[in-house]
Amino acid sequence: MRIHLERIRREGRPFTWDESVDVAPETLGRDALVALGPLRWSGRITWAATGYYLTAHLAGEQTLACDRCLEPIVAPIAEDLELLVLVDEPRPLEGELELSGDELGVLHLDDEVLDTEPLLLEQLQLAVPMKPVCRPDCKGLCPQCGADRNRGGCDCREAEVDPRWAALAALKEKS
Which partner for 83 in 54, 96, 108, 171 could form a disulfide, CB atoms 3.0-4.6 Å apart? Predict the structure, then answer.
């Protein structure tokens, strides 16, 4: 959604939205993400003396693949966002910019049109865990036959220890 900020400032009224959005999981490029359920994206932008104050909330659910056993996990999404939106004169970038802690909650725009889609996608990226697991004690899959160790053992024998690691295996057996 594209929001024209000058209208908010001119009319002196906040702009609110509440919409249902569909995002394809492939858009995020995360292998663990299998599906995204219906998402609710709502927010409010108000004019403040220094710029625009944006608050938004993203809610829904996601289906992930367990990193150890590949079983599906349905997890809720509940992400809040607060930003100060400033409209600046366009300026050429010279090299890298270092942000201070105060600047992390500030969004700089070149013109008074705010596109909320990048903000939505960023919040979705933040909601996907780095290594999702179905439960903390998940045993994963057998590396030999691929059997799910959570459902029972398999008949595979333990893989032989690489001779380069044999000295470490011996230390482990002593303790």
Answer: 54
Beta-ladder partners of 42:
18, 57
The residue behind tokens 């970038």 is 93
Q: Put residue 95 in one of left, alpha, beta given phi > 0 → left and psi -120 to 50 → alpha.
A: left
Positive or negative torsion for Cα 26, 30, 36, 39: negative
- Residue 32 CB partners (closer than 8 Å, separation 6+): 64, 65, 67, 128, 129, 131, 132
The closest of 102, 101, 103, 7 to 46, measured between CA atoms, is 7
**Are 32 and 132 a contacting pair, CB within 8 Å?**
yes
- Report the predicted TM-score, pTM, of the whole model to 2 decimal places: 0.80
Contacts of 88 (CB under 8 A, 6+ apart): 108, 109, 110
Q: How far apart (Å, rounded) are the C-alpha atoms in residues 23 and 166?
A: 49
Tens digits of per-residue pLDDT, 72-110?
Answer: 999 999 999 999 999 987 666 777 878 788 888 999 898
d(CA 82, CA 91): 25
